[in-house]
Amino acid sequence: MSDSVTWVGHATVRLELAATTLLTDPLLRGRFLHVRRHAAKPAPGTLSDVDGVLVSHLHPDHLDFASIRALSRETELIVPAGGGRMLRRRGFGRVTELRPGETTRVGSVEVVATPAAHDGRRYPLGPRVEALGFDLRAPASRVYFAGDTDLFEEMGRLAGGVDLALLPIGGWGPRLGAGHLDPRRAAQAAAMIRPRIVVPIHWGTYLRAGLGSGRLGDAPRELVAQLAELAPDVQARVLSPGGSLALG
To answer: What does the pLDDT look like over 29-38, one tens digit per residue?
Structure first.
């Protein structure tokens, strides 16, 4: 069976890589804080048979305790250095903490922590940690999950061999603050990384209360246009939440 990726929504992606199943930044709830889900509900099996969970940083839309409650406490969790204690206190016994450049393995996948230009701390009282991305190296596919980030110079070091880049392009409101990619900067990132395929994430799933959903598709359309200008050799595959892509 070929490797595949399913975009669950926001920054949550289910990756099937060489019989190893990884889940990124789980956020499965219909509502949290002042934000509600506008996309389809996650599939019932999203948390089934997960070998490892990759947590890019500790913001509640990337590490949601209510969403991971159904996971087996034996699931491997990979988190930024300094972020493991809050998960161990919730009963997870297999927590690996990484700094940028450090490596671990989940099943057949080598997991390399990469830098990210984003404030990764848990407000208001959580630990200060560095945000991460992840360079995932499976036997037949290489996937870069950016987490939440802005452009940074070291992205260029990923160039050469990335099959799929999962790049954030939006948020849940009309504005993006520092530490985020918008469609233009995501296309610039693609020009630096030169992946075969870009799948945009972190858009079109949640909206702040009071905002309409009529323009949810603007960000991916803008990304496609920017890629045509800045990285024409990179293929954009725009998925809806719940959509899947085979990496052949």
So the answer is: 998 888 889 8
State the pLDDT at residue 32.
Answer: 83
DSSP for 191-231?
HHH--SEEEEESSSSEEETT--STTTTHHHHHHHHHHHHH-
C-alpha span between 240 and 2 (Å, rounded): 21
φ and ψ at residue 226, rounded to 5 degrees: -70, -35
The two tokens of residue 6 are 């399913």
pLDDT digits 0-9 by tens, 79-99: 999 999 999 999 999 999 999
Residue 172 · residue 11 · CB < 8 Å: no
The model's pLDDT over 203-239, given as tens digits with 9 standing for 90+, comes to 989 987 666 555 667 899 999 999 999 999 999 999 9
Chain centroid to CA 207: how far? 18
- Name the pTM for this structure: 0.95
pLDDT of residue 115: 96
